[in-house]
Amino acid sequence: MNAVLLARLQFAFTISVHIIFPAFTIGLSAFIATLLILWQRTGRDHFHRLARFWTKIFAVSFAMGVVSGIPMSYEFGSNWSRFSEVAGNVIGPLIGYEVLTAFFLEATFLGVLLFGWTRTPPWLQATAAVLIAVGTAMSAFWILSANSWMQTPAGHVMRDGIAYPVDWLAIIFNPSFPYRLAHMLTAAYLTTSLVVLAVGARYLLAGAFQEEARTMMRMGVGMLAVLGPVQLLLGDQHGLNTLQHQPAKIAAIEAHWRNTGPMELVLFALPDEHARENRAALAIPHLGSLIITHDWNGRVPSLADFALDAQPRVTVVFFAFRIMVGIGLVLIAIGLTGAVLWRRGRLFASRWYLRAAGWAWPLGFIAILAGWLTTENGRQPYVIYGIMRTHDATSPLAAGTVAASLAAFVLVYGVVFSIGIYYMRKLIRHGPQGAAVAAATLPHALPNLPLASARDSTRESRAEPPVI
Amino acid sequence: MTALTGAAYWLPLICAVIVGFAVAMYIVLDGFDLGIGILFPFFPREVDRDQMMNSVAPFWDGNETWLVLGGTGLFVTFPHAYAVVMPALYVPLIAMLLALVFRGVAFEFRWVAKPHHAMWDIAFSAGSIVAALCQGFMLGGLLGGTRVEQGHFAGGPFDWLTPFALLCGLGLVVGYALLGATWLVMKTSGTLERRARRSAHLLLVGVLGFIVLVSVWTPLEFARIGARWFSWPNMLYLAPVPLATAFFAVACWRGLASSRLMFSPFYSAMALFILAYVGLVISIMPYLVPPSITIWDAAAAQSSQRFVLIGMAILVPFVLGYTVFVYYTFRGKVRADEGYH
To answer: CA A206 to CA A203: how far, in whole Å?
Structure first.
């Protein structure tokens, strides 16, 4: 394997593992802040118990996000040094602002949120949670601005192969940025809402932590029912924007090989990159045109309209996009079904729904990864769209060096983060402390979770200081 | 070198000062919490380790963020140096990042895993030691010189591996351990504090040994650095650096010897670190990548440096402000019975 492919694999691997944690903590910090504010306003204890419970899970997830994020900030230089030289003037400052406005804020106030329960007044605790939630969203703002600039570069001039900034507002608010930011933030909030809903549903099925579970169900369903349809609209607008700025990406997403008439919507196919056609295609005429151009007979540029060395490979983006959209539709269904059940007063009693929701927790993460695979692969063969090709962007390193570091990352991340996710499940299984209905029956009622040892739970409840 | 005037001269200099400041903040702040991990093997009792961990747990994440600011600061203001240094120091860099993964997650995992946390004690300790070693290797490798051809790194993956780099690596491990031990003197009480004082005495002797070794080795090995320090009138101007080092070494020793002084050992150890760092900066300037790339060669576009400096002028005071606030919130000694969140 050559060094470029290895560097790409390393970036894909490290960023895919990394994004799981921020995607979760962006939403979770907002959720915890909401709970603490609700507790301040209502004085109802179960909000406080829920906030403390989710803060523990947040801490584990956030630590994994931090340690998997630091390598990203060095990977630009270590594996992509020629990219750093070409783009450094433009995207460097965006990442600098991310550190200054977001990372310090999150990292510093995390200490207050995690360790302030007995040391600081409740309002400060709530403020810390709000600041962390703001910090995570600010972080998304800057890093998505940098990524969007690589997708739709603007506000710069090229001199001697190096990008120089001309207009910072045009750089930051480059054409695809507002759509990408809205789409990703919404995805993060949806992902967390689904996890919260799933945990609530599992507790209800197990007959444990009733009050907490109901709150989680209501908040989860409410968020899904509202944000799910919103995300559909945002995705649609993002698609129109991509058609305008990166039409080759759209052609690859739709496996649209030839522009012979209104585009059909390919529901399923096996794209044949060699013959440049679809096999076993199941397609609906005109629907592709309607969705992408909002016109029944709209014409969409096809892959045949682009030079072969200026278009992405089809297979990955075609399937990844369908996985993302498919999951999006499932999320909307979960949200709307939940809302209907809630209205009829049957949300907490419909065991079929609780079971489905309980299993749905990973869907948001999968959709986010699929979405990023679509947009990043769809940008190929460029690293900066239309400006710099990916194979010109790597560091002058031997393939063996990159292969060795890739193997080290896979090994370390594989071990450490698997254990971390296992610990998060352990915390969830253990449940909120001090709840009226304890978790005595829980391990047996959640057959798909590893069994908790009784010794563990008694020891942990002793180690916990009493809830105020 | 053609004479640079105005912004072309000052902007890179100001940026270098700020990146240098971020790196210095990282070294002293993450230095003490890495030091806690380095000391773990010498404090085997669980109750001691719990307290040691609790004493740094609210701060480690903020401390480590200075490493991100140092790295991205270099990327932002000196992309050319960043693009040469990172491939040149690839092996110790990746090893450091992976080591930081182990020790970073240990802060949370250790508590969730209890009572099966032995593995995370090892991860915390080994991760801290390897990270400190690698940072020393990177420093030594950078000082030793980087092969650059046509603006790109042109050496091999182990060019940094020299006896001098090994010395720097070991020196940094001992130095961070001293910071950690004096931190414990300040933040803990009872037997743990007494043991920390004893360890710190030994570590101080070790640190001074390494400072002397590096101070003798660098001017002998690198003629450029020798000329910087031992030519007239530089010797006169630079004399305060070794003199102040001697002063703080004595202050640290006396602080450790008195059972009442809790703060002076830590602050003196920090001062020693800052002085050693200033000494290195004096040795390296004006190069970012010795012996070929100066801060002016590596500078980003003026507009980029300006844009970032404006942000830093506004935001860094805020960052420092709320950092101080959090340290103040969690001031005082850690109690043995103080639970985790």
So the answer is: 5
